[in-house]
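Molecular record:
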Amino acid sequence: MLSRTADHLFWLSRYTERAENTARMLDVNYQTSLLPQSAAVAQVGWQGLLSISELLPAYEARHGAVTPKCVLEFMVKDESNPSSILSCLRAARENARAVRGSLTTEVWETQNQTWLEVNRMLEAGEFERDPGQFFEWVKFRSHLSRGVTVGTMLMDEALHFLRLGTFLERADNTARLLDVKFHAVRSDFFGTASEKDQEYDFYHWSSILRSVSGFEIYRKVYRDVIKPERVADLLILRADMPRSLHASMNEVVANLAAVANDQSAETQRRAGKLRADLQYGSIEEILATGLHAFLTQFLDRVNELGSRISRDFLIAAPA
């Protein structure tokens, strides 16, 4: 496959996944903001959302003080923000158009319709009228795109590059989410939280689970109250949790193997080593050394993998 084609496919899926992840985080923050809480706690939530995407400086330069209305505008439809939902859906559609010949008609029409529809919805003011409904629509379109891709495309290199982009982006986002949300409770996390903030803790940890569609899964797996160390275990080490770091790296390793070339041996080795650390790790070990340190190192390694994949297969990685 031409490296230029592989590049467009890889970033098509990354931008689609990024739009979904942004919608998930905004939706949970919006729903949480409707609960009784102090202004300080609400402020931490909105600042944390910007920190997850490393967008706090860019936001402050444009809007100054952090307010819910401005954060929602900035993260949904600000075209100057490359990680806004509108910017991500535009980038996904442009990448899809560039490789129209490598996609099935269904995949292209899904991407194109999503772009046309999001513009119509924003112009009609549907986002302002019901943000929650808009976020559900973004998630649904991402699910549809992924399902149509797997359901209609030949299982060749094109599909593998699409999957590679999806799960590398997902691993990055889940790690960022965990790091910022645990960081909001204390500077680092080494074990069970105190009992004095149990009510706040329940909403805090359940919101994290809901943002990755993990609330029902947590109940099914642990059948117990929500505990921070189990949230971390579910989202880091459980291979059967679809949005966990372990599950994402399983997919990255499998799809890397499927597109391997003469230059990619070292990239495969590093991906395999990162997956092995998750496969044979324990949450007790991770918490003993500090969750923040573990997640920071994980993000560094995932970003390095993205750079190596670009060097081995693609033309150049966008910033």
The CA atoms of residues 286 and 294 lie 7 Å apart. DSSP finds 16 helices and no strands in the chain.
